[in-house]
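Q: What does the assembly look like in three dimensions?
Context provided by user:
Components: three
Sequences:
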Amino acid sequence: MSIDAGEFLQASVRTATPLALAAYGELVVERSGVINLGLEGAMIAGAFGALVGAGAGGVGAGFAVAVLAGCAAAAVMALVVLWLRADAVIAGTAVTLLALGLTGTLYRAVYGAQGAALSVPTISPVAIPWLSHLPLLGRALFEQPVMTYVLYVIAGSLGWWLMRTHAGLALRATGERPVAAFAAGISPVRVRALALLFGGAMGGLAGGVLVLAQVGTFAEGMSAGRGFIAIAIVVLGRWSALGVAGAALLFGAASQLQYVFQSLGWPVPYQLFLALPYVLTLLVLAGTQRRAAAPAALGTALTEDAR
Amino acid sequence: MSDSALALEAIDKRFGEVQALRGASLTVRRGTLHAVLGENGAGKTTLMRIAFGLMPADAGSVRIDGTPVTLASGADAIRRGLGMVHQHFTLVPAMTAAENIALGGRGRLELRAVAERVHALGERTGLRVDPSARVASLGVGAQQRVEILKALYSNARVLILDEPTAVLTPPESEELFAWLRRFVAEGGTVVLVTHKLREALAVADDVTVLRRGECVLTAPAAHLDMIALVRAVTGDEATEPFSMPDIEARAGSPPPTIPRTRNRGPCVARLAGVSARDARGVERVREVTVDCFAGEIIGLAGVEGSGVHELLRLLAGRLAPSGGVATLPPRIGFIPEDRLRDAVIEEFTLTENVALRGAGRRRGRMPWPALASLTAGLMERHDVRAPSPATRAGALSGGNQQKFVVGRELDEHPTLVVAENPVRGLDIRATTHVLRELACSAEAGSAVVFYSADIDELLPLADRMLVVFAGRVREVPVERTAVANALVGAA
Amino acid sequence: MTTRPDATGSDIVRPDGVRPAAARPDARWVITAATGVVIILAVLGILMAGGYDTPRALAALWNGAFGSPYALFSATLVRATPLLFVGLAVGIAFRAGVLNIGAEGQLLAGAAAAVAVGLAVGAFPSLVALPLVLGAGALAGSAWAGIAGWLKLRFGVLEVISTLMLNFVAAYLVSWLVRGPLQEPTRVYPQTVELAPSVHLPALITGHRLHLGLLLAIGLAVATWWFLTHTAAGFRVRAVGAGIGAARSAGGINPSRTTALVFLASGALAGLGGASEATGVTFALYEGISPGYGYSAIAVALLARLHPLAIMLSALLFGALEAGAAAMQRDANVPSVLASVVEALIVLGVLAFDHTRARGRYT
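A: Here is the predicted structure of the complete assembly.
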């Protein structure tokens, strides 16, 4: 049996899409100086929201509710970290646990205990004329569900926005030295809050993609750590828009290796491949020189003179 | 247009239990340089932060050009023509000068246009800076220029400068004042916050003195002299032996000698050809040789980045040398600058904080009863005001915390004492206490190394002066000009 | 006023005489109690809003937890046992500033090792076999946590992320074991054969599932408390967690060594929890052997404010909650996942009202 490189790439991009969406959200958040461990919570909330929305009003509603759900999770995070000044790492973990628990409870309550797999309409790949006929990359990049194209737009505009607008400058300054931003008339609290909301929206959208463009149903805990993998993607991508794209693709490809090995007939236990993204995350975090590239104020709380 | 560019009236501000400002008023006439004087803790910075909209006042009003305003943020103040140069620069080190100057604007970011305007401003005002230079690579003087340009870029007509000369060399200070006077001559207004009385008298048109949050004196500089200023700044209190020299030292007069029996004993600590790197691996200390003798106080001076902090930690045994040999006694007392980060755990009780000393080497059980009584004794001997040894360290005031730290470190009569800015931010009483402890320690036979960012604190006490510059150490006469020159590497 | 430069070089004005929240110990326990009250009200709210028969649900909850000897000795206390082990694991870690979210994975590693060794030493007498098996569990948990510890100390990897990733890897490892090398001989079910009786932890009360593991856990709780309060090493652990800078500078403590110790100890405790479950309750290894004990443990530890003796009470409470929740589902149709919602709310509530200073930097 042989490997179809084109199919492998297409599958990689497809798998990478939710990862990249979440990672771009996290990129903005981390550029403002916050490590958002609640991203996983936003994602599972988005997944559940997609289920509810799609059941009520089709795919469009599904995505809309997914984004809102992700924002809600982020709003809780922003409240606890920025207003109540709790430790961001612990708060993020709590939000994730809360979201996992709540979505599980609500799912069983609304759709029945040990619910039979509820299926929702999904979106199928849309081929962009002409571009999708390019050799090798054509199908991989341009025959994907609509959300992947939305991802391309977001990725491109985010990169531009970060570097070429005052708002992007304000974000970066908040992540480097909040005191300096404050003295220049910027409100670091507001910047971080908005960044968190954006991150939550993206996380929710990623969750929506999981349900509406991939699996077609909801299962408890289906985010399976992707929110944390997204954090590793931001690190590997060195907090740049372009880097995140590459890193996400890498992780997407890693997830597809299982099928490559299967089609090659190599007998490796499938659990190894399932574990691969997580191991890869560890390797990335260990191996990448973070300090130089990370925003200087990443992980620090806002002091009194920067509020 | 009103005659006053900036007026604050009856400002009250409270932080928790402390009344930082009490009915403070300040009127700055347009086209003048107005000095705001006072000691550390008098409320100067707080007043300016309120004027600049960085924090709200509890009561009172702010008027800009005669119109009452409510400033919700720094952005408001900037919009109304105020600019502030902060005591600790508020620049983003990783970004370029242009990015820092443009920070706070709106819409699209056109760095090229920003750079052009920076050049133009540079031509017009003489404040030249390379827009594409990363701020981290700029020297202190250049960074300050960037801060000022930031204000001018937003068309500030009223400049507030908070302790601008604290980090400048004398020639840089001269340059700054010359520029400020030019700015004022062209119709700008300057508010200069400083604790250096001599400086203020020399350069200001008007002077306001703050003491304990209140305005105690406002007058044209021409009507004032040093004695009146000193009296206003300090009030009539404090007649203890250390306070007068302390105050006069701050006023810049030659420091008197402090009565102390000086007996120099044997060498107790030695750094021989020692080099060291900081936390980022940058070499900060280059092949330095220093001897510390029992009974002697070494005054140590050095600007930020000179390597003085690393040298102190080498002496205190907290930093391992990357080259050379450090011979240190077993018993060392270390009083670090950032007490809450390096010396004291706020959550722990005083007894537990005492137990910290030597915790790295301790084995077996913790003898809490013995430690508790040790702590009680310490509190009594060193005037640490707290309900009991079981009080959490975080509940103590700053002065008491520092007295506690000093007591803990000095109580065992260590052979070597290393003190890093031990009286920074303390009130007069605590300052006196700590300085006296250091002097007594030396009298009792310890070798003391005493670093302060304020030269005038060192001169009265030091037997020898060492100045650190670019990682090397020079001994200089115990005399102000010599030290100031050595600080900046001038002969 | 005192000023101190913070790490970014700006002055933070701390007026003399202001008491930060850390100085008001009484307030914190009151706040914890208040949080509990709010959560209870919230749960009641959810029940009523969901249209459930609230009085019946609450009755089922109580009866399921304490209403009968079965409830107490075969449900509540049995569920409390692993929670106590992992609660201690999380507690000691958090106390040192090590955010060990991986107790779940460490527990799985311990269970897996215990079963693997247990299958091998089944012929030996209990007195020999049990210590071997428990020891293997502790070692495995230690090693699993040790991976994260090594990654942190050597590479600076945030332990929150690494321990969490290792949770997933551990789950897949167990999956592979029970479908591969350790699978029962008929190769039908994804589980191991049952352990020999000599490798069963003795029951404490005949006819009930309560086993020796509980006593072991209680003993460890007391030992942990004594360690933290009365030994120099325990003092170092607390110092590093409460103020790493002062611990290093004023105390001459080596934070790396202390942190390493904590990772290992924490992992061992969680591993023991897994071993205890495997040899006291399940007697075999299978997927899903832990219904999220490692995550509940975070709530257990936080509610008890990381105090080992209080963790005993907290574990009991959560054991009761989960036992009661199962009964609530049976008798009143309330989804048992509600228990995990309550746990998450507790975590959030404790954090929300806990105004201890946010950590400035991760070191």
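Follow-up: Chain C has one domain: 69-323.
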